[in-house]
Amino acid sequence: MAFIKDTMDEAKINANKEAKKIIIQSIQRLATETAIENSVTVFHIESDEIKGRIIGREGRNIRALEAATGVEVIVDDTPDAITLSCFDSIRREICRLSLHQLVTDGRIHPARIEEIVEKTKKMIDEEIVETGKRTCIDLGIHGLHPELIRMVGRMKYRSSYGQNLLQHSREVANLCAIMASEMGLNPKIAKRAGLLHDIGKVPDEEPELPHAILGMKLAEKYKEKPEVCNAIGAHHDEIEMTTLYSPIVQVCDAISGARPGARREVAEQYMKRLKDLEALALGYEGVEKTYAIQAGREVRVLVSADKVDDKGSEQLAFDISQKIQTEMTYPGQVKVTVIREVRATAYAK
Which fold has domain 23-34+128-258? Predict the structure, then answer.
């Protein structure tokens, strides 16, 4: 009993140090570049004459292209460039490749546009499968179901907070393998779970389920091992962890997503949040101006001195903070500062 107690005490003392050592060793052995993608692609053209041909008579070509691909095609005064805007990067890529073929070929009319878009869609599907196979070969993962391979390929065209999903999953897979080796577990199973942990983000149909649970159900459907399925389902604590592989996947997912520069909020969402924050405070009586500052972590509210007194400004700050709390979603906390300034002006004539 004394021996067991000593061993347990020693393990408790060393556990934190050992855990930090394993994490640091794993991070040091895997260096990746930061991956940021936008919701806009710029398509370069050789001359402005081609712009006219892409637009077509009364804009019929551009309308046909937008209808066939679901991408907004923006033709403005920017020289030698057309902007393709869409949140779905697969659609954006289909549009870019189709435009490239149309411009190279020279024949641009609605029927031809539809034909080229159909061909490009098939080509992208083939490329997705090829990307999935290449990823599995690179990571040394064998025996994956063809449907899972296709999902891995689809990750190339998805991003999570601006971080490319395929690069993120590859990075998590490599980190999991390193960490499992350090802990004396099977690195192949850990790598497999790491690669598949986010497949719930790229399914064909989108049921109302968290991506971790959906990913686990897909892995079970395609006969993955119970350890792998549990690691996928438990990486956001939605189900109980039953094996040591589950915390490894969770930790590696956090390491990959938390690297500085790896992720960012989509700029439009961020701008909208700041505008909403200002508008919410502006709705109160006596408020003259509002400014969201420090990336939306603080709101400065300027009030009219003759409409709001000192006591009222304290109450106003409280009311605004309560309203922000109930009506908005935001990370961290938001500081509300109400500024009341009395200006006395007199004229000497």
Answer: Hypothetical protein af1432 (1.10.3210)
